[in-house]
Amino acid sequence: MPAAAFALPLIGLFLAPIYPTINSVALSALPKHRHAPMTGLIEVFSALGGTTGSFLTGQRFARAGGQGAFYLTLAPMALLVVAVLALRCRSIATTEWRPVRPAMRGLACVARACMVRA
After folding, report:
1. Is pTM, for the whole model, over 0.85?
2. Of 13, 36, 48, 113, whose CB has the highest number of CB atoms within 10 Å?
3. How far apart are CA 46 and CA 49, in angstroms?
4. Measured in whole angstroms, how far is the alpha carbon of residue 43 from the centre of its chain?
5. Which of 26, 53, 46 is nearest to 38 (CA)?
6. If 0-12 CB within 10 Å is exposed, 13-18 middle and 19+ buried, where does residue 61 land?
7. In Å, how far are 20, 22, 45, 70, 104 from 26, measured between CA atoms?
8. pLDDT of residue 89
């Protein structure tokens, strides 16, 4: 059995806590009277994403085979990691440290986002 057959379920295991965490963060940033409409909006887009995502994954498996489809799922996960690092980078105050060159600001910010704050 290929290693991808074991890795694919593990991806779901590690991504599972992200959904409720994002929901909680989004709802806590809103006033209480907007929680119900936002929860409905989140559920609608979750259903649309789940339906569309399942259909697209099935199409990928049909065209590229199991192993090829597995590797195609790595691109959205990489984008998710980059987005999380970018959001974390935005939330870190940069008053105490700035990179020398503006071109290096993005790389330096990602490096700082990976470091554990004391």
Report:
1. no
2. 113
3. 5
4. 17
5. 26
6. middle
7. 10, 6, 14, 30, 31
8. 73
